[in-house]
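Duplicate of #3305? Posting structure anyway:
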């Protein structure tokens, strides 16, 4: 299920820079999906640098952000009426140019909403 504009007056609790920083931590499950030379590729974190990324065709995905970044855990509260065994984690993805989505994994289903008008962090702008 996709909730477009799922939260009224949404204020992003994590910046692209913070998300990129989390993906550099060895304890955090992350991946970078890119399209290069006509092929889709995936690299798993932790990442040391984002210097090799161009201005298009890539997305950074970070799993269980709610376990590592307290402000994002608040995004799980509206779903707390579900039993614990139905809720997996909060995955946040960021792609360049500027867009983001938040995915809450609920058991075998996935609820996701797109965060409109997210501005890319300086780290993304300098990944040329």
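Output from current build:
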């Amino acid at each position: 299920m996709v909730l477009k504009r799922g939260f009224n007056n949404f204020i992003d609790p994590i910046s692209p820079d913070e998300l990129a920083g989390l993906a550099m931590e060895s304890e955090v499950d992350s991946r970078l999906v890119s399209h290069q030379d006509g092929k889709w590729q995936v690299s798993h974190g932790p990442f040391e640098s984002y210097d090799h990324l161009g201005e298009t065709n890539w997305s950074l995905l970070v799993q269980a952000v709610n376990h590592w970044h307290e402000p994002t855990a608040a995004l799980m509260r509206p779903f707390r009426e579900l039993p614990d065994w139905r809720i997996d984690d909060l995955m946040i993805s960021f792609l360049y140019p500027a867009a983001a989505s938040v995915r809450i994994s609920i058991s075998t289903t996935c609820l996701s909403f797109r965060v409109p008008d997210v501005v890319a962090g300086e780290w993304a702008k300098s990944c040329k």
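Confirmed duplicate; merging threads. The first helix runs from residue 16 to 22. Helices lie at 16-22, 65-68, 70-73, 122-125.
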